[in-house]
Amino acid sequence: YAALKTNGSAPGTFRGKTVFVGELPPLTAMPGALKEEYRTPYTFWTKRFSSGVEIQATMFLNLIRNDWLRHISGFSEFLIVLIVGGAVGFGLASLRPVAAAAAAAGSVLLITGIAIFLFRRQHIWFAWLIPAVVQTPLAFAWSIAYNSVKLHIEKRLLSRTLELHLSPQRVTQILKRPDLLRPGAEKQEISILFSDIANFSKVTARMDADDLFRLLNRYFQESLSCIHETDGTVVKLIGDAIFAIWNAPFPQADQQARACRAAMLLQARLVQFDSASQALPLRTRVGLHTGIACVGNVGSIERFDYTAIGDSVNLASRLEGLNKILGTNVLATRDIQKTVEKSFISRRVGYFRFKGMDRIVEVFEMIGERKDAVEDEEYCRIFEKALHRFHRKDFSAAESGFSEVSQLRPTDGPTKFYLSKIREFQDSPRPDDWAGEILLS
Known about the structure:
Helices cover 50% and strands 19% of the residues. It is built from 14 helices and 13 strands. It has helices spanning 43-46, 52-64, 74-93, 97-122, 129-162, 168-176, 200-206, 209-229, 255-276, 311-326, 334-337, 377-391, 395-408, 413-427; strands at 37-38, 50-51, 70-71, 124-125, 184-197, 233-238, 241-246, 284-299, 304-309, 330-333, 344-353, 361-369, 437-439. Strands 5, 6, 7, 8, 9, 10, 11, 12 and 13 form a nine-stranded mixed sheet that branches. Strands 1-2 form a two-stranded antiparallel sheet. A two-stranded parallel ribbon has the order 3-4. Helix 4 packs antiparallel against helix 5 and helix 5 runs antiparallel to helix 6. The longest helix is centred in the N-terminal third of the chain and has 34 residues, at 129-162. The chain is rod-shaped. The mean pLDDT is 84.
């Protein structure tokens, strides 16, 4: 402004300089008067307009100092948009929603910070709002949609997998409590069922492989439905064998009754299955026991199975095998039989000591529900008296009783077993401390 004064500056003050002369806007002006002030990119933040002379002087300085913003090439800008779009698109889709939200916010802040640094320090400008305001939010929305669809598919696959082991009601409960699928186990009381097809090796030797697999598929379709109808958990299918439990992963107050009912359903369904099938008849042997076992997800981080481990499981498996010796279909320990004896007809078939186990096990044959098997009670009473005499080492009276049972039921397996044992024990007297138990190898 001193250049406008006649004697306001010393000689040579403006030598080699460029002077811009302008006018500041007045503090007050008439309505409609022109103002020498304009908006700038900083007006939004500072709320201040700049005078025209200030803007022109700044432009002049930028020109003589080569101090202006440089817009990167279109190809470079295209690469930035492409790389950022791909990174946030694939990166956010691979993250869970919470992590994706944090990563998206971090990406926006990072892109904005880089844009500000390049603008202030390097005077470089690019279309940073495209990746920051457009691509990243769209990628976040895509990740939410993608993971929602992926989670739905995974949930459906998990549901289909669990339905092979559990009833639909149990599957729904587990899907609401995913913590049940974490690795780990705990000790609890469960009811255990082991089943196996009698003489299955002979069946396999007579059938074509394709026919055998079709037969097994139909067999498991029928047998597994018995487990699911009683809300049991199918732990494993081992060849033609089924391992199922009750009272886990959810508590069941009537677990013993459910396990016994499943065994009875299995016998009834297979009779119907055999009558409708053109294949060889299938007879299933079942072992039942209630006891403490270690139940849970066992395995490694990569793969684990929901299973039950312990002596109780081994005992149920041994009972299933005992059917082969006694010629029975369903055997149960006293531990499970005593809780259901009012609802199910059973008969004591003796005391047995399995190899490798110290305890003597009282074993019962499960015959059926009382409402369906009243006619079987008579031969059970005769058998019970004969077995009592056998345990007393009164082998002659026992033989007479078992012979009477044999007349009523000529194919009765336990009767045949004890008649052969009586002949064996008559030739080999029992020791004084013998309590009637049969030692099994």
